[in-house]
Prior knowledge:
About 35% of the residues lie in helices and about 20% in strands. The model has no long low-confidence stretch (mean pLDDT about 90). It has about 190 residues and is an alpha/beta fold. Helix 2 packs antiparallel against helix 8 (about 175-180) and helix 4 runs parallel beside helix 6. It has 8 helices and 6 strands. The chain has one domain (about 5-150): HUPs (Rossmann fold, 3-Layer(aba) Sandwich). It catalyses: nicotinate beta-D-ribonucleotide + ATP + H(+) = deamido-NAD(+) + diphosphate. This is Probable nicotinate-nucleotide adenylyltransferase.
Amino acid sequence: MKRIGLLGGTFDPPHLGHMIIAEHIRENLELDEVWFIPSHLPPHKQEAAVSAEDRLQMVKKATEGNPHFSVSEIELNREGKSYTIDTMKSLLKEYPSDEFCFIIGGDMVQYLDRWHKIEELNELVQFVGVGREGIALDSHFNVKMVEIPRIDISSSMIRQRLTDKKSIRYLIPEGVFHFIKENALYEFKP
């Protein structure tokens, strides 16, 4: 049996904050692996700025240096809205002997009651909330909170920096930086 953390998201683009969260949770919970799951169409966000294929390639670039990280295309292959309940049912059917936890940002903990079929989902998977020291987050759902160092990097901030023609170096993995540059994503202008 493997213990696997799942980190879903738009990853538009993936950044060092995603990598730090995944590695910190993996170590703290003694997980065997963390799977990054790019969403096709997130139900709670606007459409991604770049294609699903570009986001997938960026996540692959971001995770390629860590043997404990991998990328699942489960939501991209399914298309349509990416509901976590559907993902969990599929994964539990395909990997019945493995144990999963679903990693969410601390900001999402208070909104779990808005997730599609959350009561059923709460029975299927352990949620792990990413917390910040000194900030108490409360939920009536079963969420295991893990404190991580403060990381103020977001995909929207990176996209805005690109729009403003500011550097994004050292905010994203090097392979993602080169992929964005080579493919002129987010209107990248060297």
